[in-house]
Structure formats: C-alpha cells, structure tokens
Fold this protein.
Amino acid sequence: MSLSVIAILMPGDMGHGVGQALREHGHRVVTCLAGRSERTRGLAEQAGLEDCGDLETLVTESDLVLSILPPGRALQQAKSVAQAMEATGQTPVYADCNAISPQRAEEIGAVIESAGAPYIDAGIIGLAPGKPGKTRFYVSGRDVAPMQALDGKGFEVIALDDRNGTASGLKMCYAALTKGKWSLYTALLLTAHQLGVNDALYAEFEDSQGNDLQAMRGRIPRLPADSERWAEEMDEIAATFAGVGVPSGFHQGAGDIYRIVAQTPFASETRETIDASRTMEETLRVIAEVLPNKGKAS
C-alpha cells in the first residue's frame, strides 16, 4: 500500500517520535502547528516534520492521518479533521491512536466515517520509537491494512479484529495496570505521610517490598509532568470498566490523584526538564500541600 505522506496530529512526546521513525523509513511526514506551543513546535522541528499550516492543507496532502494527543482532546480533533475533509473533499485514512475508551473510539469512528474517510482504531503501548523497549500499535477496524503497512518502521503493528473499539479496549486494560499502579502507590504514600507513619512504612517496604519501593523512588518524582494527561486517561479507563459492568471507582479515584498532582509546581515540567535530583519524599511533601484537606490525622 502506498503511503507516501503521513500526518501526525500532534507531535508531542509520542507523536514526534513516531514521526521521526517514519521519516527515517522514507515517508514524508507533515503536521499542523497552528495554535501549538513552542515545545510542540520544537519537537516537530527536531523530528523533521513539515508544518502544513492548516488542516485543510494537511488532509489534502496526506494519505494517512495519525491522531496522537491527550485523550481529552481526541474527539474535538477528529471533529476538526472531519470538517477539513468535508471542506476539501479529501478523505485520507484516519487512525485514532489515543488512550480512549472503546465507547469514545466508536464515537470518533462515526465522526470520521460520516465525513467519508476510512477509520482505524489504534492503541499504543510502550514508549516512543527510539526510546528503551518496544513500541506497539494495536489496531482494529474494517480495514487496518494502511497501519499494517507501517509494521517494522520503528514500531510493531498488531492487528486484532474488525471492530472499532477493540484496540482501544486493550490499551485501556493495559494502562489500567501501569498508570493505575502509579496512582495507587502515590495515594498510599500520601496517606502514610499524612498519618505520620511514612518512615516506618518505608522501612517495612525496604525489608519486605524492596522492588516496589525502588520503583516508587524512581517513578513518583517523574509523575507530575504526565499527571494532567494521565488524569484524562484514568477517566477513559473508568468509562471502559463501567461500560462492561465492572466497578470503575478505583480508576475514578486514580484520576483524582493525578489531578491533585497536576496542581503542584512540578506539573509545569516536561519530560525534558524534570528535576532528576528530586526525591520521592520531596515530591510527596509538595503533593501533600495541595491536598483538599491538608491536615494530618491526630
């Protein structure tokens, strides 16, 4: 399948890495930077992506559009692209690669298909291409061949079935563990801090849960940079669970934890500017300061 020009919306941490990998495998990669931040513009330039200026030009020039952005913006992005398609009469394949619920994936699919374009549901697992570990795109939908054509071009593409929502469902279940786990760690450590039992708990963890404590020390200081986006992802996971009759309260609470973390000064950091010297203890002290009820138990 000929996919000469691929669009990335938007070139953030994951998107610019995917775009750079595709460029290295011979594709022309474009984007639309209208209204985007200086950081996003810098990442796009770093990856060698071409700015089309507006979505109408982007859909006219592209064979495939990959939507890779925070989940709370996925539906509006699809609506904007669908409007550009209707305005130009151009209907490139649209793959939604965001961390969204199966219900949201179906809703976005309906928006794109109503504009006359093919739609692919995709879920990304792993860090961006070029970083440690593998990057996998799980895909589903009536025709996933355009995404399968990208297999091996910096990432792996795994086809599931012909239903919109399947790939997103898998992503939600995976992230329910990985990102849900970090919210649980943060919640229990904040509680220990507020109760004044944190030092004793750390000592017990050191003795009986050493691997978990090591993981906490390494990861919790880095959470604020992702907290706002991950709060939206927890909401999507909760909706996924509720949609199949599974209690969703845990991940609703996980979203609340990330929203609290997003209120700290550390949340202004990006993955490039995280203070690598900051400790878990320092991070937790600052998060505790923005808790709705700051008082410690007596």
